[in-house]
Amino acid sequence: MTSITTQGNLKIPKLDATGKNWLTWKVKLAHALSVKRLKGYLNGMVLMPMHPAEQHLPAWIPTTTAESKK
């Protein structure tokens, strides 16, 4: 079983194409993300940021003629 080593000594096994190591992979990935404080992105607690052009924030300034006509 090959591993991908992340920072420190957290090792996540490569997910087998047949899925035979699914549970091990899932548990180790969830743990690694928790340690890095990234698990919220996996479970949906942290929302993906919106693209600035879609938000139409005051900081967004059209840079092309087509964008300014919207």
Characterization of this structure:
This is Unplaced genomic scaffold scaffold_2496, whole genome shotgun sequence. The protein is mainly α and 70 residues long. The chain has a domain at 9-49. 39% of the residues lie in helices and 9% in strands. It has helices at residues 22-35, 39-43, 52-55, 65-68; strands at residues 3-5, 11-13. The protein has a two-stranded antiparallel sheet. Strand 1 and strand 2 (11-13) form a beta hairpin. The relative contact order is 0.11. The model has no long low-confidence stretch (mean pLDDT 77).
Instruction: Please give the count of helices.
Output: 4
What is the first-to-last residue Cα distance? Answer: 53 Å
Low-confidence stretches: none
- Order of helix and strand elements from N to C terminus: EEHHHH
Please estimate the helix content: 25-40%
Gyration radius, rounded: 20 Å
Mean pLDDT: 77
Principal-axis shape equals: elongated
- How would you classify the helix and strand content by structural class? mainly alpha
Strand content: 5-15%
Main sheet: which strands, in order across?
A: 1-2
* Biggest beta sheet summary: 2 strands, antiparallel
Total strand segments: 2
